Amino acid sequence: MSDIAAVATGWGLTFVVVATYALWVVGRGKTIGRELGIGKRQELGPGSDSSTPASS
Amino acid sequence: MSQIPDSKHMTATLGTRILGSVAVAAVLLMTLLGLVVSPEDLVQGHAVRMLYLHVPSIWIAYAAFVLTAASSVLFLIRSRSRADGGRHHDRLAGSAAEVGVLFAGITLVTGMLWGRVTWGTYWQWDARLTTTVLLFVTYLGYLALRRLPADPIVRGRRSAVMALISFVNVPIVHFSVDWWRTLHQKASLSVGRRPEITGEMYWTLLYSTLTVTVVASWLIVHRYRVIRLEELRDEEALNALIASRLREDDVGN
Amino acid sequence: MLHEVLLVARKDLRVEWRSKVTIGQVAPLALLVLVVFAFAFDANARLLGLGAGGLFWVAVLFGGTLLIQRAFDLETDDGNFDAFRMSTIGAPSLFLGKSLGVFIQVVLLELVLGPGVALLYDVRIDDWFLLLAAALAGTVAFSVCGVLWGVMAAGVRVRATLLPLLLIPVLAPVLLAGSRAFETAFGVRAEAGWTWASVMFVIAAVHTAIGVGTFGFLLEEG
């Protein structure tokens, strides 16, 4: 393997892995946030009536 | 709850959006400096550019594992006294460990590619490579332990003890493997010693370390918030289940 | 304290004595591993002789993991941890007692494996004292680490796969040190076997201290 090919592989893989992880984290946050109905119910305090979740 | 903002940007706040933008800009500059501006090494040639990712990654991995260990100790101390069971520390430990594993993996891949070019082989059984691969697997195990379904506080305590042991074990692993065999370029960035990498290469390395730190901070903060959302979701699911059981009981009676 | 430790260890050993799983199943299985190693090395007597120290410890690790699994399945199946929590036996005593129980069972395993390695791999022992010291240190380190991780993986459905994943990286220095010390004791390596034996004593001491300090956290519920 030439040194340029190795550098390209290393940098390329790193960028792909970090970007994928970042997108996964943000996407997961959005999915769960939607499930929880954040936005529809601005106040999600610990005292709120959680027996009727907005998603069901 | 104030940490969880409106629906459009679930895990983002103004602070992290600024941090994210800085990170993206810094990465662009890092790419330019690392791949274009900085010169080739006389001995290593282009392969030296791998170190601009390799060295910062291992620094972040270690820093993240230190954060995990410190948070775990705080969690163990406070889990009995605080109302929320010190779960803030548990979340921080978990998010830091995950980012640490990510960068430990990057360290291994870039290190192996660098080794292929410089040593002519992907793998050498030298002290730091062996320690890093053991560290990587150890924290993969830690993440597996965290994923188990269990009471959050019980799981938190188990993970915290594991983080503590794993951390104490790092020097033990390192020294034992070091005595076993030593065959590695000396540390590239070290305080108090004249670095072997000099001039533009040294500054590029320093700058990329800073950049990767910013990127990792952004990742840890976001992962922390997502763990918090996951916990909220689990609590809601549990409450909904209890409520439906109670309703069934009412109907049954 | 000592009384409690012995009480816990005695209970485990009595259960083991009645079922005879260590001697009846785990030890023969570990012997089989020794035979399989010979297949892997094409029955090359020279290679097997050189690697005998390491192969011994790999077989101990394999068999010992099964023993630890069993030591905790016994507790969780009958909800014994709840009984321990209710009893006056302190967490440190419980930890040391469980470790002592595992230690004795692993020693039994090694008493079967040791002659097996010596006979099958044609090993001469140059330094008996080093061999015994290294075996003692390595076995103590293995037992205390095993009990710590055993209780962590106890009671979860995936414990059979989780325990080795957690245990092996932590035991890597013990495997390394044990193998090197045994090689010196077998006279195939001139290096300082005593240094490696002392490394294992340090590891054993560190993990015993951690276990005594943190076992209480691992037992508590919610």
Automatic annotation (TrEMBL), chain B:
Keywords: Cytochrome c-type biogenesis, Membrane, Transmembrane, Transmembrane helix. It is found in: Membrane. InterPro entries: Cyt_c_assembly, Cyt_c_biogenesis_CcmC, Cyt_c_biogenesis_CcsA/CcmC. It is a multi-pass membrane protein. One of its GO terms (molecular function) is heme transmembrane transporter activity. Signal peptide: none annotated. Its main location: membrane. GO terms for biological process: cytochrome complex assembly. The keyword Membrane applies. The chain crosses the membrane at residues 18-37, 57-77, 97-117, 129-148, 160-181, 201-221. It holds the Pfam family Cytochrom_C_asm. One of its GO terms (cellular component) is plasma membrane. Belongs to the CcmC/CycZ/HelC family. This is Cytochrome c assembly protein domain-containing protein. It comes from marine metagenome.
